């Protein structure tokens, strides 16, 4: 397994055993592919992680007044390097801006193959609930996501047609059979039981959507983690951190 840390940081393509894989963080170049614009207040838990000077970096999902959850690999710099936008469809018009005071990354996070790709971010000031800002529920410990279940993922940035759409994009993606997912990714990267595979031809999350939600009916099932660099490829589903596998961990860390 050869995934260079520097490549992950920059979101560049990485060749491993002849196939390409990348984590989905790429400053200034994020996209959901095959999606549509979200409506105001439709995804009120969605946040954008930006650099302190306002370059889009990653996504996240609000789970309490002080915390949102994101991917482990989005934590590449000290908390002061980042700022967080909530309550916005357009990140260029932040509804609510927050500093990051603390980032808790899973101690078994592995930057080489993105095991345990989850982190908790504390913000200041706290989130203030409104029609545009509210938390998403977490699934119970061990909740399964059956193959074919239709989930939604969301994020900002490049789509197939627009390099930098202003408006938050969302796309529905079916959960893919885990054995199939392990098989198609076997020569590139291992897929673990604490991950969810989802996606369809032309419908996928992509670079820069990292850390963002995979959800249904107000419950957060997954966190955007990694996938094919071209995104939406027929036989290469996106890979998400399975939140129900980390339910106890979240509670242990922050009591939520
Ligand atoms: C973030 O922290 C900086 C430096 O302490 C401060 O100037 C700024 O007002 C803070 N932003 C928010 C939204 O609280
Ligand atoms: C959560 O699920 C795991 C795996 O099924 C189990 O081992 C663990 O005991 C569960 N934790 C709680 C608090 O029920």
UniProtKB/TrEMBL annotation:
Keyword NADP: no
Record carries keyword Secreted: yes
Record-annotated Peptidase S1 domain positions: 32-255
Pfam families: Trypsin
PROSITE patterns xrefs: TRYPSIN_DOM, TRYPSIN_HIS, TRYPSIN_SER
GO molecular function: serine-type endopeptidase activity
SMART domains (alphabetical): Tryp_SPc (SM00020)
GO CC terms in record: extracellular region
Keywords attached to this entry: Disulfide bond, Hydrolase, Protease, Secreted, Serine protease, Signal, Zymogen
SUPFAM superfamilies attached to this UniProt entry: Trypsin-like serine proteases
InterPro entries xref list: Peptidase_S1_PA, Peptidase_S1_PA_chymotrypsin, Peptidase_S1A, Trypsin_dom, TRYPSIN_HIS, TRYPSIN_SER
Secretion signal span: 1-18
Subcellular location: Secreted
One biological process term in Gene Ontology: proteolysis
Primary localization: secreted
CDD domains: Tryp_SPc (cd00190)
Protein name as it appears in the record: Peptidase S1 domain-containing protein
